[in-house]
Amino acid sequence: MLLTDFIIFVLSLWVGFEVISKVPATLHTPLMSEANSIHGIVLAGAILVAATARGPLGYALAFIAVAFASMNVVGGYVVTGRMLKMFKRRAAPAAPASPAVEPSPNGKVTA
Amino acid sequence: MTGAFSTVIQLIYLAAASCFVFGLHLMNTPATARRGNQVSIAGMVAAIAATIALVIHLGTANATGWIVIGTGALVGGGLGLYAARAVQMTAMPQLVSIFNAVGGGAAALVAIRGYMTLGTAVGASISVPTVLDVIIRSVTFSGSIIAAGKLQGLITSAPVTIPGARIINLALAVVAVGGGAYVISSPGMGALGAVIAAALVFGVSMVMPIGGADMPVVISLLNAFTGTAVAMAGFVIGSVGLIIAGALVGASGGILTKLMADAMNRSLANIMLGGFGAADSTGALAAGPAAGVQSIAADDAAIQLAYASKVIIVPGYGLAAAQAQHEVAALADLLESRGVDVSYAIHPVAGRMPGHMNVLLAEANVPYPLLKEMDEINPEFARTDVALVIGANDVTNPAARRPGTAISGMPILDVDAAKSIIVIKRSMGHGYAGIDNELYTNPKTSMLFADAKKGLAELTASVKMLVA
């Protein structure tokens, strides 16, 4: 069982290296925030152990684990979305010959 | 956990893990990145829903258990939502550190709790990952909190060195690893407690000596640690979803750590053992203009910019510290409306975490195609009329190309290849590396001595006057 888990771990590492090395530097902050949200999957683990918790100490540990993990998941995804929303494309800047291009408020060029 | 139900649950976890991978894949361009985030969220919702269904099916949770889960999720989720909505983009590194700390804190508790329920009759397949998880996670928990404190300015960002720190660190490491080995050979909660305490203190003493400008590396490294810890927690409770997600995060943190360390031209060991011994560039010594330095008035700088055909803006952390990203965007918009070709040269370590400067400029509505990475923009400096350097120092210093200086071999932006260079800076103070920047004494360089925000506002006003 441990060996199977370990095989999955190593293969996932390789998949991670392949996928993440293609993310451009422009997006490294959202990438890190996104990766942070993904490890919020520990919420699933927190719920599983909370379900078997008995007694005050067990409940206290479970409460902290669930609260920490929820904060990680919700906050992480919301802030990643907030950052990504700010990255806007606009058509390439006007050539020097036509200087009268004004960007409109929605970030699109109206020329 | 046998039967068809469990198979379905495992398949949902597999689908969720696929969503995480595909979501990260979509982040390879800014155009698809938002969809990537949504795909990842969908995977997460499915995984959590499946977990709740599993707990209902198993019927292990009693009423109190459900109340604990519900209130925990509400309190934690609410705090996370508030923090994510309220945070300033300049404070993003601190927030990521805090989320890193709490996410891993949860992972450690899951592993400890899983270990407790199994009692003393555990084999090596459980106790080894538990011990590893608890050590890594405790180090990361306290380390991330110290890093966030330094970034927020609650703790001095200067390297703090304690006499004999290395001996203390060594002792702590021995206690943690030795205690860990003891726990594995004879399981018990007392020894595990000692291991946790040693690892927590180790996290503090590890991050305290590291300076503010090295934070991009530290944050990346702590992120890699957390990923590994989540995977270890997955080993302990036998959850494939946790293992895959943890490995993905570990890979991401590992890659970013290497990229940042390379961009600073320093080995990881060098950074972890303490910085150049200098403080932050923003708090550097103030000195008067040195010999061979030409200063320039805003009016004259504006003439150069307004009549240039190609301008490259080089923003550094000083720009972010002065909160001047909106002013620089306003100046660039004005120049673009005159037909000037404007782009931004972003050094990998501009900012306090990987890619931080890009987010700050995106917030100021700078279109992302104008943000150029170092390798992409360097050949363009030779065709550039004016390079405008704002709050960037060491990453523009040509001394890096010669051997024998503190920054030798560090990859730099080839700003000195531009036809003319304007540097907005408050004083001749040194950067983080504590050495003179040879760019400032280059005959092509003019210094505009001002605070970034004020200097840029003056430049914009002067360009407007010229145009009118």
Helix and strand pattern of chain A: HHHH
Q: Report the count of strand segments of chain A.
A: 0
Rounded to the nearest angstrom, the radius of gyration of chain B is 26 Å
The count of helical stretches of chain A stands at 4
Task: Strand order, main sheet of chain B: write it out.
Answer: 3-2-1-4-5-6
Radius of gyration of chain A: 22 Å
Mean model confidence by pLDDT of chain A: 81
Helix content of chain A: 55-70%
Q: Which series of helices and strands of chain B comes N to C?
A: HHHHHHHHHHHEHHEHEHEEEH
Biggest sheet details of chain A: none
How far the N terminus sits from the C terminus of chain B, by CA atoms, comes to: 76 Å
Query: How far do the termini of chain A sit from each other?
Result: 63 Å
| Overall shape of chain B | elongated
Task: Please sum up the structure shown.
By secondary structure, chain A is mainly alpha-helical.
Plain-language structure description:
The complex is a heterodimer of chains A (111) and B (468). Chain A is mostly helical. Chain A is built from four helices and no strands. In chain A, helix 3 packs antiparallel against helix 4. Chain B has helices at residues 4-26, 30-58, 63-86, 92-118, 124-152, 165-185, 189-207, 215-237, 240-263, 268-272, 298-306, 317-321, 325-337, 356-363, 374-377, 452-467; strands at residues 310-315, 341-346, 371-373, 386-390, 420-425, 445-449. Chain B has a six-stranded parallel β-sheet. In chain B, strand 2, helix 14 and strand 3 form a beta-alpha-beta unit. The model of chain B is unreliable at 275-289 (pLDDT under 50). The interface between A and B is large, with 94 and 127 residues.
Topology:
The complex is a heterodimer of chains A (111) and B (468).
Chain A (H helix, E strand, L loop, with lengths): L1 H19 L7 H11 L3 H10 L3 H32 L25
Chain B lengths: L3 H23 L3 H29 L4 H24 L5 H27 L5 H29 L12 H21 L3 H19 L7 H23 L2 H24 L4 H5 L25 H9 L3 E6 L1 H5 L3 H13 L3 E6 L9 H8 L7 E3 H4 L8 E5 L29 E6 L19 E5 L2 H16 L1
